Amino acid sequence: MHWVLQKLSRRLEQLVIVVALLFVSCASIAEQSDALKASKQFASQRHACGLDHGYQCRSAEESNFLGLEADNAMVPAVYLSAWQQALTDFNEIEDLSEQEKQLQHYKIGFSENEAQYVVHFQALLLPAMEQGKPQGLLRGTVGRTTRYWINKSTMTIDKRLFYR
Fold it and tell me: What is the pTM of this model?
């Protein structure tokens, strides 16, 4: 009798795991469907503002670039040389659609290490929509997050990495 109860207990555990996996799969499929709908909606729209994740306009405050607090909007000018290299390569990636290459779908970051400048294309997360209004974020994007390492001496691309 004890053996039968153990076997039933194991079967019940397996059933719970299967049900949980089905629930997660269904939620994932629903989220992918939502991401696809949102990507179609936002991919073709033009926005007259700088966008954050969820395709929300950032607050538009013109800076006079004179105070120390303006430093967060400033980048060293040499980063723009690295940017040109990265952007040229980015626009030549064959498996990205023209829509995925549009810069409105990205935030751009710059940094550096001892030997390289780093240019980061951060694809914006799509908004979760409820009753026509954005309510949170989805994991989906229109673009593809990509990072470049540009050699400081030669200003050539040492490495390109795609993120999923």
Answer: 0.64
